[in-house]
Design brief:
mainly alpha; two-stranded antiparallel sheet; 5 helices; 2 strands; 4% strand
Length: 196
């Protein structure tokens, strides 16, 4: 009886050992597969990182080129505006007030566009969530007035009226003048474009 019981116990232990050995082989095979998959993923990740870096460099080169290509004509426009403004005698007669007002709008918008071109180079910072803001204390009227002047010709061409009501006692705000002006311009241009 003792021998039989010992035999049965050893037989059971042997079966357990075989099962454990089978599980170990399966685990070893799964581990080998996982290691191979990890190597493939690591290679893929390295390739994707390289592609991302190449894309980042390409984007930086593109932004630098676009900024340069936009800056040249903008500087010409600003230069001509200043020339016409500062030396009206070149035309051997006094400039009409309407033309002077239009020149002021062109100059103001060109300066605004020039500051936006500067911001193009900050685009990568914006994507990284590190947008550079040039905050300063400004009067709301200082932002609204040039925006309205810039958009008024578009609105007048569509026979639309624009009424501005800015209380004089508004406190100054701490903001990025260029960004807020861009928001106002976008709002008013869209309003003009989509209003009959």
């Amino acid at each position: 009886a003792w021998s039989w019981n010992s035999y049965c116990r050893f037989q059971s232990l042997l079966e357990e050992a075989r099962d454990q050995r089978l599980h170990l082989k399966e685990a070893q095979a799964a581990l080998i597969d996982a290691n191979l998959e990890l190597e493939r993923l690591t290679e893929r990740l390295a390739l994707m990182s390289q592609l991302a870096e190449e894309a980042r460099l390409t984007k930086e080169q593109f932004l630098a080129k676009v900024s340069h290509e936009l800056r040249a004509p903008l500087n010409m426009i600003l230069g001509f505006c200043e020339l016409i403004y500062d030396a009206p005698n070149v035309y051997q007669r006094e400039l009409p007030p309407a033309l002077v007002a239009d020149l002021a709008v062109i100059q103001r918008n060109s300066q605004h566009l020039s500051s936006l071109v500067d911001d193009i180079l900050d685009l990568s910072k914006a994507e990284a969530g590190k947008m550079a803001l040039n905050r300063e204390w400004v009067s709301v009227a200082e932002i609204i007035e040039p925006s309205v002047v810039a958009v008024r010709p578009l609105l007048q061409s569509k026979h639309l009226a624009l009424t501005v009501d800015v209380p004089r006692d508004l406190p100054r705000v701490f903001c990025d003048r260029v960004r807020i002006r861009q928001v106002l311009l976008n709002l008013m241009i869209n309003a003009g474009r989509f209003t009959d």
